[in-house]
Amino acid sequence: MLVRLPGLLPILFALSSPILAQSQISQQALAGVVEDQNGAIIVGASVELHQNTQLRQAASTNAAGSFRFDRLIPGRYQLLVTSRGFEPYLNDIEIDAQSPKPMRIVLVVGQIHSETTIDGEDYQVVTESSENQNAARLSGETLSNLPIFDQDYLGMMARFLDPASVATAGSALIVDGVEARGLLVPPSAVKEVKINQDPYSAEFPRPGRGRIEVTTKPGSTGFHGAFNFLFRDARLNARDPFAVVRPPEQRRIYEGMFTGPINRSQKAFFVISVDRSEEDLQAVVFAQVPTGTIRDNVPVPTRNLLISGQINYVASKTQSYALRFSTRNRTIFNQGVGGPVLAEAGTTFQFREEEVNISHDLVLSPKLLNQFRLLLGHFYHPFGSVKPGQKVVVLDAFTGGGAQIDHLHTEYHFALNNVLSYSAGRNLFKTGINIPDWSRRASNNNSNRKGTFYFSSLADYFNQRPYLFTLSEGEGRVVFVEKVLGGFVMNEHRLRPNLMLSIGLRYDWQNYFQDANNFSPRLSFAYAPNQNHSTVIRGGAGLFYDRSGPRPILDLLHFGGGGLRSYRIANPGFPDPFNDSSLPGQPISLVRFEPKIKIPYQLQFGIGVEQQLTKSLSVSLNYVGIRGVGLLRTRDINAPLPPDYWQRPDPGLGALNQIESAGRSQNDALEISFRGNVTRYFKGTLLYRFSRSYNNTAGLSYMPPNTYDLSGEWGRSNDDRRQRLDLLGTINPRKLFNLGIVLAVYSGAPYTLTTGRDEFGTGIAARPLGVSRNTLQGPAYVSLDLRWSRDVFLVKQKGEKGPTISMGVDAFNVLNRVNFTNFIGNLSSPFFGRAVSAQPSRRIQLTFRFKF
């Protein structure tokens, strides 16, 4: 490399000379960083290194929270870290013939526990409430060595979420202590990602199994940075099984960050990061039209730009601030195309978002800590049809015409979180308020103005016999304020050195729901029966309230008797749906909330045992039960009456879609997980889950086909994959190269058998007599991804890494297994019993990274 870059030789020599000179007189070194429990650096902490009760070296952490001891001979040492207002930290350190890896030491207020993490992961079994070993916790450094498609860290970690724990509006995302809509920093700025940490904590609205926590990197006293380039081309990929020819795709991603002090300050630091992606992708259409089968490739170009800037300021040993501004601009053309959706029914997607994050940490006294987080955001989200014209849907055969989508959504929102922690003796008290969402939303809905025809089969389409026509008209603009807030109080009490008890109470509230008694108690414990704490029995239970998100509120304001009118015409004429009658004479369809609607909640409970197998390897076995109560669904309470299902109870009204909290669910899971260093060269995380999940609603937008007979609604949930196995790991044989492994093996997902015909006048395809939801099942899913990479150190000091170039090759779905998706259970479809799409075939990704 140096031979090819002769111009860099003088610079590299100048940089490396003092380092090389120092390495000749140094022996081993011990380095690390000291932080609080939220990732904020601690400046001025006292760090002492003792040996045989004698002080060998002492130092204080610098403005970056780091320390370093040089010239250490092999042996056993004791490391003592103290800082005003924090619990002292003491641990034995073994120095052998090779310098240990940099340490991350976390101090907390008063009697709160402290922990040491090497390379970002902790595999030690302890009795602390937040150290459950069935959590998935990976550092940014570890994630960068895994084969992750487009460096989508959240998408990768989401496989460790429990679908039964995810809320109506999706999984909860916590970024630097405050709930966020998305991760508005590039992957290189991510410090750590956690799932299921402290699963029964009252501090959060959602359980740990439905929550992703992200910590970003703070600023640094020295200048450091990273640049990543990812490249993929279709010529390196296998052909999609539904494509006639291999689509000519290419993807380019440029991403990186740069950090350092501001004007040589020891208190102020900056972080600048950028992520630019250019994706020239193709969607594969597989549809059946009257003239035959269509198999076509349709361009779906995507552009994305993310810019983020951050300033960290350490005002004193007890006070620090952080300010971050991020902006994202994303466009997608021909979105929604693929499978049975033709190119003409695509949409143009745009999304622009700005976000400001403010944080303040203040140590009020040696036992009292206050943490304040505020997020301010705005986004602008227009999307529309690629082509105009009426939309035509032939169930599970093809969707054509115009997409009939013309919608502009804008929003101004803020989220706030303030937590006060107080330690006293064996107790840690925490209380706080949080506002996950307080937003002003504006919606301009001009969709479906030309209408949509629905046909049960190709034969009905050929004979011009639609079963339903829908159309909207009127004023489509609404403005409303959504308010969601909560508060909590909790206490972690150490009853004995080997027994920890955590008890808490939380309250959640959301406007538009006349439901104000949403108190949710939480309880968890951890008990170590043996003296060395190598075994821990852990359990807990709690209530967790859901949130609806803006979707039902928008439907209520648009179609609840406001300015937007919705028409649903059963068995319409074609192409004249009104059979020469006028539109104003047609009955209007409405949306309303059930008068006594409640916010849904879950009862989640579990028990498990954790065992320390070796110093850096642990195993846990857990049972988790979930019971969902009052789940949301929609039901047409003005549906045509039996037995002929023709006449509505109120003939002057169309459909009356009532959003109600009447669903329920039951989920039971047995999990076994391994975390840590399995061998000297392999470390990773493995999770195997055997579960059974049933419910009687598929979510907010789900409507039972027969309003008057709900006996067949109880069945397997849409995500009821009985067995799941996920493995993430890295193999590092003596630093020769890095091999990252991601393996996913899932049993098949269920799907529903239908006749394809609207037999009950609700506009929903009916199931055969006596058939429940999700009685059919697709095949298993298997995917193996590999990443090979090699690090080249431009400058290297013993025990430290200097500027590094990394070159790698990622291979996704190495086995090139065809994992079919979207199976058709419609008896009237030409694709009955078959899949109309598949997960991507084998893809190769080339990566280049530079870090300094």
Structural class: mainly beta
Largest sheet, in brief, is: 22 strands, antiparallel, barrel
- The outline comes out as globular
Q: Using the 3D structure, state the CATH architecture.
A: Beta Barrel
Poorly predicted segments: 1-26, 111-120
Explain what this protein looks like in three dimensions.
This protein is mainly beta and about 850 residues long. It has a single domain (about 215-850), classed as Beta Barrel (Maltoporin, Chain A). It is about 5% helix and about 55% strand. The strands form seven sheets. It has a 22-stranded antiparallel β-barrel.
Brief overview, please?
This protein is mainly beta. The strands form 7 sheets. The chain has a 22-stranded antiparallel beta barrel. Strands 9-12-13-10-11 form a 5-stranded mixed β-sheet. Strands 4-1-7-8 form a 4-stranded mixed β-sheet, with no helix packed on it. β29 (519-527) and β30 (535-545) form a beta hairpin.
Protein traits:
single chain; 852 residues; mainly beta; Maltoporin, Chain A; 22-stranded antiparallel β-barrel; 5-stranded mixed beta sheet; 5 helices; 53% strand; globular; disordered N terminus
